[in-house]
Amino acid sequence: MRPDPSPAPLHGPRIERRYDLARVGLFRRRTSTEELVRGHLERLGVSLFWSRSALDAIHYCERGEYFEPVFSVAGPAPARSVVALMNLEPFMRGEIDWTVSPSESPFWVGSIGELHDDLFEATAIRFLDLYWSEENPSARPDLDAALRDMAEDVAGALSRDLQGGADSETWRGLFALGSGGYVWRIAEKAAPATDLNRRADLTKEVEAAVASIGRGPWDERLLALATSECTRRSLLFGSGSPGGWATGGEFLRRGFRFANRQLWPDVDVPLEARWDAFSFGVALFEVDDCLARGPAWSVRQPGRSAVLH
């Protein structure tokens, strides 16, 4: 009998692989978003008690539900604000649209808590000291020009609505309240700070408004145009006042009432026009502060940055 010419197996019978290489990855340990967020909060020094709120905020923002209320370390706040507050954007799938104004939310009204009476009184005193000083921080030429543009626009709108000319006293009053809004915001900056930037969401909204103007590195009307854009978008500037989303809106409204009594009492001009002028001043501070921080505006002349006393 002739021998079988096929060689004998060297290592026994061949064994077929009966596993899917693609599934091997299932046995590798993957770090979950929850674990990443918990580690992030630990580095921030935030209690892990708030990890659930952080994950909820991420989830809502990924679905585009930016203003769904979430209870957080800053109190009740829209999901987008919580993401900004805790710097959670790196853990999201997709990007947040910061051009959408919180005022467009149909249901967000915030909540009422402690109104910080002692802090308000200290802010009011600081406001008066700054406003009536020889170095009023709103007296810079570029800020002055923006405030003049605002006073002319609001006075012109009043003339059309009331079918009569706005006199020089009205113009001066609107200008004073605009200047007052800028100075009030600076007076608020003395409020006790924390490791978390409670104004982070408002900062991003202002940056988006400034970027939408699309002008050169420096333009003499950039401040006025960007500030007008912020007010047009109805940004909720009270979220940047002491108390944040919970009571910051009321803190800012109290500031307006105080400034109105001090700067322009007993004048028959609609309260809405007065509030518009004051809000413009608050927005002007936010835009000025934004431009002072941005590297794209490094060509600004020395001394043109926001004044933080």
Structure description:
The chain has 309 residues and is mainly alpha-helical. The chain has two domains: 33-97, no CATH class; 117-297, no CATH class. It has helices at 33-44, 51-62, 79-85, 117-131, 141-162, 168-188, 200-213, 222-232, 244-263, 271-293; strands spanning 69-72, 75-78. Strands 1-2 form a two-stranded antiparallel sheet. β1 (69-72) and β2 form a beta hairpin. It is globular and about 65 Å long.
In short:
By secondary structure, the protein is mainly alpha-helical. It has 10 helices and 2 strands; from the N terminus they run H-H-E-E-H-H-H-H-H-H-H-H.
Structural features:
single chain; 309 residues; mainly alpha; two-stranded antiparallel sheet; 10 helices; globular; disordered C terminus
SSE topology sketch:
Elements: H1 33-44, H2 51-62, E1 69-72, E2 75-78, H3 79-85, H4 117-131, H5 141-162, H6 168-188, H7 200-213, H8 222-232, H9 244-263, H10 271-293
Antiparallel strand pairs: 1-2
Helix pairs in contact: 2-3, 3-7, 4-6, 5-6, 5-8, 5-10, 6-9, 6-10, 7-8, 7-10, 8-10
| Fraction of residues in β-strands | under 5%
Distance between the termini: 107 Å
Task: Assign the structural class, choosing from mainly alpha, mainly beta, alpha/beta, alpha+beta, or little secondary structure.
Answer: mainly alpha
Shape: globular
Largest sheet features = 2 strands, antiparallel
Kindly state the percentage of residues in helix. Answer: 40-55%
Mean pLDDT equals 80
**Strands of the largest sheet, in order across it?**
1-2
Provide the low-confidence segments as ranges. 8-30, 296-309
Q: How many strand segments?
A: 2
Radius of gyration: 28 Å
Overall number of domains: 2
Order of helices and strands: HHEEHHHHHHHH
Number of helices: 10
